[in-house]
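## tool: complex_structure
## caller: assistant
## args:
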Amino acid sequence: MIPAIPQPDPLALPAPAWLLWALLMLTFFLHLIPMNLVLGGSIVGAIARVRGRRGDRPQDAELAHLIVKAMPILISATVTLGVAALLFLQVLYGRVFFASAIVMGWWWLSVIGLLILTYYAAYLLAFREASLGTAETFLAWLVAAVAGLIALIYGNNMTMMLKPNELVARYAAGGGGVQLNLLDPTLFPRHLHMVLGAIAVSGLAVAVAGIVRRKQDAAFAQWAVRCGAFYCGLATSINIFAGLWWLAALPRDVLLQFMGHDMTAISMLLAGILLTMTGAGLLVMAATGRRPEVAVTGSAAALMAGIVMMLLTRDTVRRVSLDLAGFETVNWVAPQWGPIAIFGALLVGAVATILWMTRALATSR
Amino acid sequence: MNYPVWDIPASGLLIAFIANVHVFVSHFAVGGGLYLVLTERRARRDGDGPLLAFVRGLSRFFILLTLVFGAITGVGIWFTIGLVHPAATSSLINTFVWGWAVEWTFFAVEIAAAMVYYYGWDRLPARTHMAVGWIYVASAWLSLAAINGILTYMLTPGAWITTRGFWDGILNDTYWPALAARTFVAVGLAGLYAIWVAAWLQDPDLKAQVARDAAWRWVLPMAVAIPLSLVWYLGAAARAGVPVAEIFGARDAGVPALVSAVFGPALTTGYPVAQRAAWWVVVTAAALTALTLQLVLKRSHSYGKPMAAVLMILGLAAMGGSEWVREDLRKPWVLGQYMFVNAVRVPPSEATPQPPPDFVTRFGADRFTVDAINSSGVLKASAWVRPVPDDLLAPADYPARAEHQGRELFRSLCSACHTTDGYLAIRPLVRGKSPETLSGVIARLAAPVDAAGAAVAWNTPHVQLKTWRNRRMPPFVGTDEERQLLAAYLALLGGASPSALIPPSPSSDVGKACFEANCAACHGPEGLAPFDHKGHKPAELYEMIGRLPAINEMMPAFEGSNEQRKALSEYLVSLPRPAPKGGAK
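## result:
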């Protein structure tokens, strides 16, 4: 019997697995923030645009305008940070990732075309917003729909790669690369959970935008905090059920890890739930309280910490699923410390340079 | 084999398509940044408002093209190579993850700087704006320099073959010439794009100013620098063991010989695709240079969008052709001297770092080297090969079984390059050939040799290839039975009747069997040179068979026994003489 999981390359891992894992988690977390703002923000922005077109809701129109201006930058940040996460994912899990991507080859490759489409649509909105007429609403929804579709395609690959033993039969049925993982019971609750989470994070971002502009436009600031709290609170409330649906849809052996077999996994999941609910609650308090900036800051901290916990929970699902499928980490390591050190130094330099440039832009109005 | 094969025709063309449009934009992303900063500096220094406005407009076009199309198609190449060459991509990532990580830091700064540069036109002081522009230029070029190491490694891996060292792979023999060539291409493309954008200008004087500057300072100097750097590159590649002369069918790797081969009569040896691609590069680059000269000397005020579009198309064609030649120089390797295009590896040499025992215990010995697959067979090494249906196992079902298993072997071993009827179609190549003939050809597609051409083992460091008619094919890997199954499948594609396929067995006619296996591919009735004994006696032919390479260097030495040689010479005189050219007369 030939193992379904491809054999590792006869090459040493170029860094300790823990370092690659840590960088995967870090870059994926950094990717998640703009990605959530693109996915959730495009939905919030499209709704605001529809409401703002009525004429009697200038704050909605202003919010739609802000989101449209930010969207190309957010897409750029999503792609740039996503590239790094994908790189480290491929080092650690390339054997199942590539096999899964091939089975859904055309879908996977379509991400590139969809990204170009949504990116140009976002730029068209940003540059020609005033002159587009009714097309602006269409484009706003197009960006949201395509972002959601890309997320679904990613979800397909990320769930299909967890079942390497099914891939051989799938491939035998057709190797043309047109299959998806639509019958996986975790796919849609997972997707719903991600989209709702993105809306909640975007709600937080709307509130933060209000706080940042509170000195220039107090009325908008107050409205934006309320609007953000509404989106964040509503999405988080529904997400409790979506999360439970996802949990219940997990394979039994994976689910058991969260039901008493693995205390770390349970702790991370519970901490994630508590932190995100705290974050949403603080944002709702900010909408009614006297010092909204304090509550919004607390909400942001709680939601970011909640995202970290959820990210680690998601990683646990992947690790346990692959363990059960027989996936083993490569145990031949020859760290390339010289290039690792150069990367570390350049990373610090890149962050400093980007901060200097963005600060120069922000302070030179 | 270790991974599923994405079952689409000509998957390599998909990479070529995405890569060609990407490099045409990504090199502009490098040179264009330099053009923006230097032209902005000049416009500010000279107080040239119209020129400054042009640079500003160009910067908008620049970010829309490079940040969106350029950046995303770059990710697209990565997606595509993972789908088409997963084993090679995995090897590259394992070896150079830190190279890519370093490149990513430059890429992140490049993207941020481009955005700040564009959004900063009205908000940043001129000095800061220029500084951001220079940050962009530096990060974009460094990103190119990092990726160039990985790209050139794929052709000339250098000492990495034995050391597996990161720097040995990155700073390989063709690193510097390729970096020079790519830098010059980036600069030339910047001028070309400036001419293109200037074609939209309403002010004829400004248009002429931009076009002349772009042509004289950016495009035309590179028309000299790029060919020189490519000569340096080809020489470095040849010295590193890439059979440049053989691929182009030239006497040697010198420029006169290469040009003569590329523009000479059609060749029957070497790699025709590379020869045609090189012809294409020279012709389109010459046309591009001539048209740029004409534009700048006679039509700088009046040239329009059509002329600018033709220049851009010529630039894309020349660049695409160059990348195609680079890819073809590497064939049949996907990673030079390490992995063939069909993901089969050469075994590591004794000097190469070996996996520790606990790795082998956990994952087993490497199943995908030439030697391992020759021993186990393809069909037993790969989980992705569709098994033979039970109802095809009876001896009477051999034709159907051969078709099924042959197709699986074709998919695993050949489909990385060949399609059935489309690009590099296999059907015309096998038309009318018998399974025995095809089996003989397949057996000698490639053999390992050293730099002097002497036969060596596959695990010899920096192994070279002696390929059938210098066609740059990988060796067949698999068992003898699998070779015969593949040959039977190809014979079916070529029009053989299924009823004519019988399981191979030792032939009673030794001479005929030797002819089919060793000679018929070229000297059969449908071959390039149908055999004519010209009245020679068996003893004379026996003697000639003993010195085939001396008679024609394209003929391999006969490797059979003396009895087989004698039987072959007797069979040869029994063959009817071919009709003279021109008909029955």
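## assistant note: Residues 13-184 of chain A form one domain. The mean pLDDT of chain A is 94. Handing back to user.
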